[in-house]
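Box S2. Input/output pair 1.
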Amino acid sequence: MNRQFICHSETPVVETDRGKVRGYVCNQLFIFKGIPYARARRFHAPEPVKPWEGVFDATSYGYVCPLMEQEKPSGELLIPHRYWLMDENCQNLNVWTPGCDGEKRPVLVWIHGGGFRAGSAIEHIAYDGENMCRTGQVVVVSVNHRLNVLGYCDLSDFGEEYANSGNAGTDDLVAALKWIHENIAKFGGDPENVTLFGQSGGGAKITALLQTPAADGLYAKGINMSGVIGPLLADSRGSGREMAEAVMKELNINDVKELETVSYHRLSDACRKVSPALEKEGKYVGGTPHPNEFYRGVPEVAGFRKETAHIPLLVGTVYGEFTSFVPTPYDKHRMSVEEGKAKVEEVLGKEAAEQLLPLFEKAYPERNPVDLLTLDFLFRSPASAYIRQRSALNQCTWSYFFNQDMPVDRGRTPWHCADIPYVFHNTELVPVTWQEGVTEKLEKQIFESVMAFARTGNPNNAAVPQWPASTPDKEQTMIFDSQTRLRCNHDAELMPVFEKYMGPVFAKSREAIMEDVQH
């Protein structure tokens, strides 16, 4: 490829509904960063940005939402990160496009992870949209929005102006989708063919948008990656009054209006101080969506809204999720099958091993039995239930499972976020994905499935076996690994028994897992 860079006063400039924006051209791609899609007062609904004169410089990423805790450097080998300047005025988005022309390309909108509490549109190195845009000839958009106490703090008891403060972050996403619907055609995208895709908290936000009437008609499809997490990211319940009053007491203020202007640092510190006691009593502490007229609640409780039943979804999880972040104290590649079975019996006991090992071998015949100890159920079981519930409404719900071991410790089972580089066609940016004879083929299979789904709402393509949609009785799961294949109900017998024995083990570390999910 011949290197190319263009950025001057006339090119590339796009006229949006708020004014002109200038990005830059890099190797035949048009790139725009930090475009504001809305503004908002703290705890209030987003409003359209006031039109500007002149040309907005969209050559730098915009602010990301402030975090409630200082991040700690760790796990960079597994998930390379980058961090950015933080400010409450974080309603901005980034666009990668092959051309600002009249073409109607599929649009993929990335919604970042980090629960509803942390993260950003650029947090992972693998979130970069350039390779997806170029290889797939699609328009890629990534979105920043309000999080934590700024995005999900219910103050509705204090007046109508705060009626939806418990969902302000989701309201920002709706505003972003409206901006995309109104403007993306000028960036070479099709506003009627928008696919939401997100991982972890990003997948949970896609579910929240499905349950949000204001988002109807602003997207056509969704890809939910490890974003069905059951009780770990359940809706906030009850009134936020007690929490708000406790925060005001901590801050020595008397009027809720003062919460709008106190420094974010003081506000977040106060929230962190008062939340543990309230949470221990089962009281509202915020941090997740709050059911109301704007947001109808998680489908496990409220059911899927019939108005979005026709939306195709691609839903999946990763083999180990958070369990695989922890290095194992044994080397499975030097273990025989019998030694693997013995280790399972040592850890879980004879009764559990006798019941689980035959079911594990049936579900994962390619694996050493010791891999049972890093198998996830906190994500997988809720995701399967979600797929069954969703597929009862339509014939356009697809299931996938990322099963490829990674070249750490001579083959660690894949962890939460391990599939992201393949989806973005960004394995070249993440060295831990590099495996000779595997990476290129697997990346093509996953990427082509994502592109097919973005174009048509069906992931079938020439790179993978025939892939039927799931039904309530048959979860048709594409197992992505070095031997990608379709399996029907492959772990349906295993999961209930596995959860029975591993549930108590995982319960001891649930708080730590929740903290990791949110970061």
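Box S3. Input/output pair 2.
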Amino acid sequence: MIFTLHRYIFCELLKVFVLATVALTLILSLGGILRPVQEYGVGPRQVVHILLYFMPITLTFVLPMAALFASALTYGRFAVDNELDACRASGVSLLTLIYPGFVLALLVAIANLLLSFRVMPYFVHLAEKSMKADARQILFRNIQRKGYYSLPPDGRYFIYADYADPMSGTLFGIVVVQYENERIKRIVTSEATKVQFDPHDKFNEVQLNVYNARQIGDAANDYWGRIGSLLLKKEFGSLLGDKIKFKKVDEVKRIRADLMQFDPIAKIARTAYVQLATEMLAQDMGRRLRASPGDFYDLKGSPHSVRLSATACALDKRMVISLKPPVIVEEYDTRTGERLRRLRCEKAEIYVEEDPANPRLGLDLHSARDEVGGSLLVQYVVADLALPDTIRQSLERQPILSAVSSRAQVTSMLGGPPSSILAGQQTNLNAVIVHTQAAMKSEMNSRLVFGIGGIPMILIGIGLGIVQRGGRLLGAFGASCVPAAVISGKRLVETTGPRGPSGVLVMWAGVAFLVLLTAWIYRRLLRR
């Protein structure tokens, strides 16, 4: 008889639980895709895919709520119809009657832990991969709908077009605006542009082949004619962003062991590393120019190398060294040593490419005059130059993160304090590191708390469903949700940092409070 009674209660619980799960999952999943639809302009096919990807994610939050609702409703109706009194009059104890609800709570807790630790991160990665694969369609759909599109995640490139032809992959009447440090760095206009996407694991390489174009840069050097291939290598962004809360357990462990495994930290660290290389080059060059005025500083390259002389050098912009006039540059063949030209100009810059594995240099000369032939070059660039061996070897002695995260280490490598640019990058990097460490600590604890805390929360729902008989079942459900609010110590951990135990204590104190409240409610019920 007990088995039949348990099966009856569990079937009633299961009916309400399944219906509540389906309804809440659909509602929350539909709400979750509003952002990608609005921001990315995804089409109907992508909407269906994203909806399927979002369902496992929303299940993580839906399952405890659906089980709570089913428990409060089923046991509340069980008490209202006097079935509970009939069972107790027949000698069946209250604790025996709640076995089906307890089993449901255990199953939900196990499912929730599996979803949060394994399934949810996997489907988030699938959703991001789907969005990156449809990057070309998203770009053209947004331009057709709004006339422009900003390449995520930081919106540094805006693409405007008069007409988009998705069939040929061509944009007509295009304007590309590049922003940097809240100012316009470059504007490119063209009559027609062929767009090509080369998808990678963590970014999409966007190549714009522009025709009959005009480029306007921050140095006010405009010129007409075909620019050729304009390469924008940008991460196309993601639905939910690269966040710790969407990482698997093994990914979090790898990040904890090596913070460079986390892309947001790695990007800032690599940028700071290249800036450090720029400042080391500027210091070495400045010392040479001050010690031997008029002497030349060598920069080796392939196939050409340069010798340059200037009054001084300065760090005016990120990863750029400005040379003070007069600037004299001798370009020669690296293999034979033959001098190719000797140029004199009033403005020159050395820029460092953002490739920390092998930083390459470029020398950009403005209005340079050839002292031999007398010709004027409006803009002349010598690319693919290498860092001096002494600087490169000094950089290679330290891992990237260790070299740039410590202010003392940077000061030691530079022989003095860093520039305001590098100091700001270090401050930003250390802030992100602290936030990431706190996020890892809070995320692992919050997943455990949310899964384990669901068991006493559901038992509280059962108890309040029995107490609030007489048709006030929704009130019982609402009251049973209130204790779950004490689990929200996750934000406190992220605020106090990874060494602050208060947030973790609040989360686990919330579970302890739910357990004590459960014991108090059932003690009152057993006395009745």
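Caption for Box S3: Residues 219-226, 491-495 have pLDDT under 50 and may be disordered. The chain is about 55% helix and 25% strand.
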